[in-house]
Design a protein that fits this description.
The protein is of the alpha+beta class. Helix content is about 20%, strand content about 40%. The two termini are about 20 Å apart.
């Protein structure tokens, strides 16, 4: 089952074209990532208390349509790759249209696991691996 996270598009996030400014999508993805981990039993505070954090190392976004202020928006999150020190999450931004949701944007973000003490990247620990589960890509970004 795919995890989805609701987004409340605020007026300040919309540009003069009436759609969400592109930079906000990365904020939405990070917020969805932390909610995804909580849903999988790993609140961010527990991860950091265990001495780990994650840092974004790459993100890509493909837009199909914009979302605007007041739209009912959900972000689907799914792990697409789990490596030794990094993992990738796929994101689908979905806008409510009539009786269903239409995909307006696809994204993929690669995160690397780092030590909270500043000493650099680490292998993905079991507590994060368990939360990520098995990869199941939502979208065809290579």
């Amino acid at each position: 089952m795919t995890f989805t996270h609701s987004v409340n598009v605020r007026y300040l996030e919309v540009d003069q074209q009436g759609v969400v400014f592109n930079g906000w999508y990365l904020t939405y993805f990070d917020d969805a990532m932390t909610a995804f981990l909580v849903d999988r039993g790993l609140p961010y505070q527990i991860m950091t208390a265990a001495g780990y954090d994650v840092q974004l190392v790459r993100s890509e976004i493909d837009w199909k349509a914009g979302v605007g202020w007041g739209d009912d928006v959900r972000i689907a999150v799914s792990p697409s790759r789990i490596g030794r020190t990094s993992f990738a999450l796929d994101f689908e931004v979905r806008r409510h249209e009539g009786e269903s949701f239409a995909v307006t944007c696809l994204g993929r973000t690669v995160y690397v696991v780092v030590a909270m003490d500043g000493s650099g990247k680490r292998e993905i620990p079991d507590l994060i691996r368990r939360a990520l589960g098995e990869p199941s890509p939502l979208l065809p970004i290579p």
